[in-house]
Amino acid sequence: MYVIGTDEAGYGSFLGPLVISATLWRFDEIDFAVFSKGEIDSNIFSRAIESADAAGITIGDSKKLYHSGGSLVKLASAVLASVASFGVSIGTDSELFAAVAGMDVLPSMYSFPELSLQKIIQQNDTSPASPQTESYSNNSPNSETPSCPHVNTAASTNYNATSTKPIALPVLVSPAFSRGVFLDVKSNVVFPIEYNKLLEKYGSKGELLSHLTFDLVMKILDVVPSDSDEAICVFCDKHGGRNYYTNLLIEYFPDKLPSVITQSNEYSIYQIDKKQFRFKAKGESELPIALASMFSKLLRELAMNRFNSFWQSHIKNIKPTAGYPVDAKRFLNDIKEKLEYLQINMNEIWRNK
Asked: Which domain holds residue 39?
């Protein structure tokens, strides 16, 4: 069975891009007849977020693995190891934007400086290396919270893949499936000008997020072999706290009316033939969503690093910003005069909602 996990970073910010990512996995030995009824534990792919092993890669909720102004090493380590698992070698942030978001050129405010992701990792005391797999399970048979997954590493910090064979990243074993193979990732980096146009088109942030997410889902579905008869499950974090997604699914899959399995505050689940769509509150607890959240967060933070560097090149000693509401207004006030001097339109820098 193929599984897609999606998540965003920067949804609540006024400055910088909204980033959405989707990861593609393949799991074997899933009883889809049971799975499709929604009877399998809602935490089917869940893991707890714990401290990373000194020799491993942590895959988890990016909000717990990174805090503003902190080290990007955990995000960068997992992202580079993940893309290396299917033969892609990434050295710089420019290469990452090109590889996963298809962006060879970024807007002028985000055009420099190029950052070495290898240096981010090597500056850490415990640098991870080429990925290998390690199985894991609950700490106790009665535990409701499984231990955090790690991908063991050894030998090299460069993540130069020697084989294009996909790595089998470990997942929590359940009666429904054994393990998953990480196959692909795609990201959509939406800067303020495009964001504001789309916001006007869709009318709300929630609708904008839903449409951008499913635009990405449709792209990554193209990676699945067209002749495959395997089931597909799409996992999404809930969009703006909404519980109802029938109209969205009809828009993207107009030939078949989705069946509603459940619609609740925790989960909204829908079925279209052998495709299942799960919208989960706090979805980052699911492995496919968690890795998507890490890609989105890393891309967002790398973009904000360039954004802050741009303004620091024009205004001495200006305090950098993460771009979220209160501090974004402070930052906007700090750059107001220079904004006018450089003749930069507000639409290029400020997101309307």
From this structure: 2-303
Q: Rounded to whole angstroms, how far apart are CA atoms 295 and 19?
A: 9
153 or 74, which is more confident?
74
Residue 153 counted as domain residue = yes
- Whether 328 maps to a domain, the answer reads no
Contact predicate 276/231, CB 8 Å: yes
pTM for the predicted model, two decimal places: 0.81
Q: Which helix (H) or strand (E) holds 339?
A: helix 325-341
The yes-or-no verdict on residue 156 having pLDDT over 60 is no
Assess if residue 327 is contained within a domain.
Answer: no
Read off the pLDDT of residues 7-54 as tens digits, 9 standing for 90 and up.
999 999 999 999 999 999 887 655 555 554 444 444 444 433 333 333
Residue 119 corresponds to which tokens in the numbers above?
């240096």
Under 8 Å between Cβ of 297 and 9: yes
Asked if 122 and 34 count as a contact pair (C-beta separation under 8 A), the reply is no
Give the Å distances, CA to CA, from 161 to 85, 131, 294: 7, 9, 20
15 bridge partner residues:
350
Distance CA 65, CA 59 (A): 9
